[in-house]
Design a protein that fits this description.
- The protein is α/β, with parallel strands linked by helices.
- It folds into 3 domains: 22-171, SGNH hydrolase (Rossmann fold, 3-Layer(aba) Sandwich); 176-283 and 358-363, no CATH class; 286-351.
- 44% of the residues lie in helices and 18% in strands.
- The chain is built from 10 helices and 12 strands.
- Strands 6-7-12-9-10 form a 5-stranded antiparallel sheet.
- A hairpin with a 2-residue loop joins strand 6 (194-200) and strand 7.
């Protein structure tokens, strides 16, 4: 459950523009957002609003006023607004004085928090989470390991996961993806979108319609989400597919998930092991990649549709406002492009297929 929104098929749309400010979106939201009649809107402005210099009252005013207008307009339209704070700049890779600009962004964080509170809307503190994780990661990997991007502003996969964590926590997700229980003296059972197809002597065949979030890449690279996991409780808080083992009479248990295997001390599987965290290489990885590619294709189309086509078509509509035939042609074109978007959204849903996999528990 996401603050009153049940887990059901949702229509999602990416409306962000690179380099934009809160004022920029405020000026176009009536044309670009409101026609879609949103139920939930997320914002993450502030990085560009700060002007990449020290904070002053003018910066705060130019950020606060459009943020208040955005939230008020969405609230009036019946939408919940999850107000996200700006992030921060990297302490080492950013070209300017990181401490000075991060102080600016912290001021904008406070304004975003106040805007959300005044409108009784949820708030995602992206700034503090990024800062905390960045400091911990650099202490471990060295200063050259960037969390807020090689340019200091645009995070790679590691920082993107941190930002996603902040928003998902603010949405109220509990991270429970289901539990698989293996009784070495009896039958297996599963909950939360996972079905036991067959089980025998610790070997369980499953069919899962709920995926854990899969993480890829070299753990030492900022382009990988894996390296940030020791400093961010993403799997613990938001990505828990739990294995519980009963009837274990030995000190250890060897667990095999797909092609990977691990040995655990007895107390761990008896209490519950998070398979999503213990097995980063797992049977869901390839299906997850297919869904991820379909999502990326859809989002790329959305960026073109909102940033390029919508802006262009508004100019065309102004030019042909007295030409009924031309207006009809524009309307037809818009309908066809929205139909294309629906097709891409359908492709995402169809990429999400049940995963059949095997889990084995052996006493050691």
């Amino acid at each position: 459950m996401v603050r009153g929104f049940p887990l059901r098929p949702l229509r999602r749309l990416c409306l962000g523009w690179g380099g934009e400010t809160a004022g920029g979106f405020c000026n176009r939201m009536e044309q670009d957002l409101m026609p879609f009649k949103p139920n939930l809107v997320t914002t993450c402005y502030g990085m560009n609003d700060g002007g990449y210099r020290a904070f002053d009252d003018g910066i705060g005013k130019r950020y606060r006023e459009p943020m208040e207008k955005i939230v008020a307009a969405c609230k009036k339209a019946g939408a919940t607004v999850l107000v996200g704070s700006p992030g921060c700049v990297d302490l080492n890779s950013w070209r300017g004085q990181a401490d000075v600009y991060n102080q600016n962004l912290a001021k904008l964080r406070d304004i975003a928090r106040d805007v959300a509170k005044a409108a009784d809307m949820p708030f995602a503190n992206v700034h503090d989470v990024l800062m905390d994780v960045m400091k911990k990661a650099k202490a471990e990997y060295g200063e050259k390991y960037h969390v807020c991007g090689g340019d200091g502003v645009h995070p790679s996969a590691n920082g993107q996961l941190v930002m996603a964590y902040a928003f998902l926590k603010a949405m109220g997700f509990d991270g429970d993806l289901g539990t698989i229980t293996v009784d070495l003296a009896g039958k297996a059972a599963a909950t939360g979108g996972h079905k036991v197809v067959a089980s025998d002597a610790g070997k369980v065949e499953l069919e899962s319609t709920r995926y854990p979030f899969c993480l890829f890449g070299d753990e030492k690279s900022p382009d990988s989400q894996r390296g940030i996991l020791p400093f961010l409780p993403f799997n613990q808080d938001l990505n828990r597919l739990v294995l519980v083992v009963k009837g274990l009479k030995t000190d250890n248990a060897k667990v095999t998930s797909g092609k990977a295997e691990k040995t655990f001390a007895r107390a761990d599987p008896e209490k519950g092991v998070n398979l999503a965290d213990a097995f980063l290489d797992n049977p869901f990885a390839d299906p997850f990649r297919k869904v991820d590619r379909a999502v990326a294709t859809k989002q790329g189309y959305e960026t073109w549709l909102i940033k390029d086509f919508n802006r262009m078509v508004r100019g065309i509509e102004n030019q042909v406002k007295d030409d009924a035939e031309a207006q009809a042609a524009v309307k037809t074109l818009k309908a066809k492009l929205l139909a294309n978007h629906d097709t891409l959204a359908k492709a995402v849903r169809e990429a999400f297929v049940p995963v059949k996999h095997t889990l084995t528990v052996q006493a050691e």
